Amino acid sequence: MIIGLTGGIGSGKSTVARAFETLGAAWVDADDVAREIVLPDEPALLAIQHRFGDQIMHQDGTLNRAALRDIIFKDPEQRQWLESVTHPRIRERLLQHLARLKAQGAPYVLLVSPLLFESGQHALVHRTVVVDVPQALQLSRTQQRDGVSESQVRAILAAQLSREQRLAKADDVIDNSGDHASMMEQVARLDERYRRQLNY
Fold this sequence. Notes:
Blueprint: E1 2-6, H1 13-22, E2 26-29, H2 30-36, H3 43-52, H4 65-72, H5 76-103, E3 109-112, E4 127-132, H6 135-146, H7 150-159, H8 163-169, E5 172-175, H9 180-198
Parallel strand pairs: 1-3, 1-4, 2-3, 4-5
Main location: cytoplasm
Catalytic activity: 3'-dephospho-CoA + ATP = ADP + CoA + H(+)
Organism: Halomonas campaniensis
């Protein structure tokens, strides 16, 4: 069974995924895979460099993600072009990772993705879990974690589904606005439910 785990920026998806991992689940993060496919010499990076030039490259030949983010969140057309290049490659690589993790014998595998619904990756999973927090908390956590401006966080939020839309699509919800113990309790409940379903 593959569980899709999603939530807006700053909702704590990775923290929740690690909590599931402590209970024996395996997980792959679409953000990690998105970084993987733009490593030096990867076809996606060559296409991105060809389109945007050296302004989005570091001296060492790696992608300057901040410079690219600055361009694509100001121009929806550029973002659509970037997604057309990266999303199919991310999907293909995710399938490889998921197959490998399933073969290793975890009871179920989490696909952690901020754009689970937007990118169509929800078609790869059997159930979806949304990690939910109020928008004010998303803003403060992301600014603190990434050292970015409020306007940049709001631009990223605007590119994602609204909180209401995401919750409407969820099979399960984890409220991550409380303390760590509350989150762990919710994860343990879902873990128990997923294992029960696997026994049928």
